[in-house]
Amino acid sequence: MKRLWLLFFALVVLSSQLVTVVLLFQMKADYAGLREQHKQLQVSFDHVQQENTQLRATVDQLSQPPVLPLEQDTKRQEALKREVEEITGLKFKSDVPFRVMTQTELQVFLDEELSKDMSDEKFMLYQQVYQRLGLLPQGFDFKQSVQQLLTEQVAGLYDTEKKTMFVIEGQNKMTEAEKDIIIAHELTHALRDQYQPDLFTRMGDFADRGLDDVASAVKALAEGDATLVMVHYGLRHPFTLLDAGITSTARSFFGSSDVLNSSPPYLQKTLLFPYEEGLAFTQFFQLRSGFSRIEELFANPPLSTEQILHPEKYAKDIPQNIMIDVSGLPDWKTKISFSLGEFELRTWLEQFIPGEDAHRVAEGWDGGRVQLLERGQESLMVVAFVFDSDVDRQQFEEIFETLLVKRFPELILFENPDQVGENRYSSLFSSSDDPHSIIMLDLLSTTPQDLEKLASEITFESLDIGFNSLQ
Asked: How far apart are CA 187 and CA 458, in angstroms?
């Protein structure tokens, strides 16, 4: 009987275990089914949520007025003006009207502005000098490239003669956020023009007088100031800045130009210089004394690209203006003459020696000039530099031969001008007027007497720090 009871108990236990197993399998199957149902419900929920988001976006879009283009949105124009005033601490003295300019009108405007600055002949002379120095390749059309660079990616501009802000029609590649940032930049020019009305005009006057380095320095101040305001505007509107795709100020924005990216390095650096180095220059003073210090800079602008590159030298290291007098050589006629600053010297050296060495040598710059002369079919290019010290001059002399051999493989170097033949020559002279100077003569053919005479006629004078004295 006990055995039967034990057997019965075992059967009961076994049965309960079988039931448990069956129940577990059933529960597992039910759980799997529930999970599958949950997945299906989740997919349906996600689909409904996505449709809901789309519907809400559509409703929001329909409930809000359409975003007007900047040229039609007067409220946005006024808001931009107010922000420029708040950033700079200056008030507009008069209204700056907004107008629309078509692409055709833009091309005509830029062509007229270029013609005012430089004639076709002057463009060709600059091109000849730059090609002779090795800064532009042979066959490169200097004027055409500048025209293309000025036209590409222009969203707005301030006309200093008409005192009007022009928004360029048909710039579909630019977002409204990009336009806002650019117009903030241009409005800064308009604001400064109301306080220093002759500043932009005088930049052209300096270039006409062969003081190109002064003109470059003043332009760097103006563009650096406007770029600094543009950056501060972007910091006030970080999402606008991100929407515009600007991540590193000047280079990220201007670097989007296809024409710029395909241009020779010298032209790229020259066009970016006033924005990048001008930004660093103005920021140097603004971080220390605020935007009121920038206003003081406009009253007494920098006199050289050296001062732009080294803000600590502003108003302290006064550049020397080199004068080349050819009146003693009546057969030679000056075709063009303009100053070369530290920026040009550094950029020129970078074509032939490592950048670190180029910067080190160029930092000794104290003045520079290039002058192109002609006599019949002969041409003579004079490049003269004066350096801060004899050590700086010697550093230049050490790399001079390397530079010229790379630039002119066929060049015959000589230090004694008695060696003259029919080939291209170059020579170094130290001026008796300033022992820190270097005079380079690059020519096709001439006489030793002309070289010695020309070298003796080069003089040096310091530019007066008073900006108004340059009028």
From this structure: 44
Q: Measuring CA to CA, which residue among 113, 269, 123 is closest to residue 203?
A: 113
Chain-centre distance for alpha carbon 311? 18
Query: Which secondary structure element, helix H or strand E, spans residue 95, and what is its range?
Result: none
Q: Are 440 and 425 in contact (CB under 8 A)?
A: no
User: Is 247 or 238 the better-scoring residue by pLDDT?
Assistant: 238
HEC secondary structure over 405-464: HHHCCCCEECCCCCCCCCCCEEEEECCCCCCCEEEEEEECCCCHHHHHHHHHCEEEEECC
Residue 196 DSSP symbol: S
Average pLDDT over residues 275-292: 94
Q: How far apart are CA 29 and CA 69, in angstroms?
A: 62
Q: Can you tell me whether residue 264 is helix, strand or coil?
A: coil
Do 438 and 428 contact (CB within 8 A), yes or no? yes
Strand order in the sheet with 412-413: 333-339, 365-375, 378-387, 437-443, 425-429, 412-413
Using an 8 Å Cβ cutoff, are 100 and 71 in contact? yes
Could you tell me what percentage of the chain is helix, strand and coil, using 3-state DSSP and rounding each to the nearest 5?
Answer: 60, 15, 25
74 by Cβ neighbours in 10 Å (0-12 / 13-18 / 19+) ranks as: exposed
Q: Are 364 and 387 in contact (CB under 8 A)?
A: yes
What's at 402, amino acid-wise?
Answer: T
Q: Return the higher-pLDDT residue of 42 and 304.
A: 304
User: In terms of residues, how long is the chain?
Assistant: 471
The band of 458, judged by pLDDT with boundaries at 50, 70 and 90, is low
CB 304 within 8 A of CB 177: no
Q: Spell out the SS3 assignment of 296-307.
A: HHHHCCCCCHHH
Query: Of 190, 192, 197, 202, whose CA–CA distance to 166 is shortest?
Result: 190
Contact 190, 158 (CB under 8 A): yes
Residues 388-415 have pLDDT tens digits of 888 888 888 788 767 766 665 544 444 4
Strands 412-413 and 425-429, by their bridges, are parallel
In which order are the strands placed within the sheet that holds 164-168? 98-101, 164-168, 156-159
Q: Please answer whether residues 246 and 298 qualify as being in contact, where contact means their C-beta atoms are separated by less than 8 angstroms.
A: no
pLDDT of 210 above 80: yes
